[in-house]
Amino acid sequence: MELPSACSHPCWFVLALLLLLLLWATRRSGAWLPRRCPTDLTGKTVIVTGANSGIGKRVALDLARRNARTILACRSRERGQAAAEEIRAATGNPAVLLRLLDTGSLASVRAFARQVLREEKRLDVLVNNAGLSGLPFAVTPEGLEQTFATNYLGPFLLTNLLLDLLKASAPARVVNVSSFRHSAGTVNLRHLTGQERPKRHQIYSSTKLMNVLFTAELARRLQGTGVTVNALSPGVVRTGIMRHSGWPLRALFALAGPFMKSAEEGAASTIYCAVSEEAAGVTGKYFGSDCRLALPSAAARDAGLARKLWEESERLTGLAAGREH
After folding, report:
1. Rounded Cα gap, residues 163 and 87, in angstroms
2. For this UniProt entry, which residues form the secretion signal (predicted)?
């Protein structure tokens, strides 16, 4: 799910007009539809983070329908269990499991990864979907800015901790849910720890830019392993990610809700990257909400910036000292 994370423009009419134009553009139907994709995932294991609602839940539902062992990685036990029960009932797939994960906590990420490595023999698809928007600036007990930790550093650590299992299961795929808003983001490494306070309206966009940079650098490092990684934009989607934003922005998007994509429609580009034959072997790319290859921003294509971000992320997550197990 992705939406502009804040707004201070005084002209609501202009904002509403621009929003409707954006919604019109992102609602256009792509040539690829999940229901027409015959991919069967029997014998495969997938993980979807943030799978108790919105896009993540629709992605998990689709993968469970394809007979995958589907792990819902959720922060809330109550909401995650409800989603797992609903998906099991809808698909008839008994192998829909809840595992607790808060990507905003590196300790939680490590505990989750240890459990997966202990319990699972393979991992064929990892979907890094969990994210939030609109929260005020705050630093976690681990010394990380909370939105950067949740949307970027947590998924960075999780993916790295599960890489050996992904490689052993190759061909395997990593799917990073980014946003068209990545083009408005910037990379200031001091923002990751709150040493410098970012502008609130840029935090979400910057985390999504980091998702694309991470994707490109990871793809470079994984060449020849059989593990692919791609980033995508789901479009403007009607989910609950804006619940932490201020009331003017929530009101604006509530009015525009009927024009937005549903969570089911918004999940299409994620599912495309996860299971489609067309995406097999494709890596290091960015897909638009129409499931087609798109050119990310100039900053997102900066290989030097991607390497610098990777090195700092390794340091902040403790990976710089060596591979964690």
Report:
1. 27
2. 1-31
Residues involved in catalysis: 204
Q: What's the token pair of residue 190?
A: 């001091």
Give dist(CA 215, CA 144) in Å, integer. Answer: 21
Rounded to two decimals, the pTM is: 0.86
In a domain, 145, yes or no: yes
Q: Write out pLDDT tens, residues 174-186.
A: 999 999 999 999 9
> Considering its fold, how many domains does the chain have in total?
1
At 243, which CATH number?
A: 3.40.50.720
Q: Which structural domain, as residue segments, surrounds residue 136?
A: 44-319
In a domain, 29, yes or no: no
Domain membership of residue 233 (yes or no) is yes
% the chain with pLDDT above 70: 81
